[in-house]
Amino acid sequence: MSESSTAIPTSIDPQRLRLTTEQATEGxxxxxxxxxxxxxxxxxxxxxxxCSSSDLESIQFAGRGTLYSYTVVRVPPxxxxxxxxxxxxxxxxxxxxxxxxxxxxxxxxEPTIGMTMELALENLAGADGETQLAVYxxxxxx
Length: 142
Ligand SMILES: [Zn+2]
Hints:
- By secondary structure, the chain is mainly beta.
- The protein has one domain (10-140).
- Helix content is 0%, strand content 44%.
- The strands form 2 sheets. Strands 1-10-9-6-7-8 form a 6-stranded mixed sheet, with no helix packed on it. Strands 2, 3, 4 and 5 form a 4-stranded antiparallel sheet that branches.
- Strand 3 (27-34) and strand 4 (40-42) form a beta hairpin.
- It is globular.
- Residues 1-5 have low confidence and may be disordered.
- The site of zinc ion (ZN) has 8 residues, from loops.
């Protein structure tokens, strides 16, 4: 148990990451699927961007995907709390959507396009220094 905080993390974005265990050690990416045209969207949606239907259902994604693209970020956005430089990966889910997140757990400095990635959660201290936030990242599938 960490001495800095014993708070149970909450999702940094509940419309994209739903935590599935009480200790927030696991979670799933969530989004919507259009019942008209079967296109899936990561995150919140009010209507389908492909066919404008509002007949959407909530879904959860499998938690794995293929690395589609990445960039090495050497100058992070203001307030970035993590490592620098870091790898920002764009992962294509089997359901269709692309999900941007930091890539962790790499053996090399840079990943390989097409490699299989899996969802990984990391905890981050909230701005008040007491709360903990669970953040979604990608890591090479083991
Ligand atoms: Zn649609």
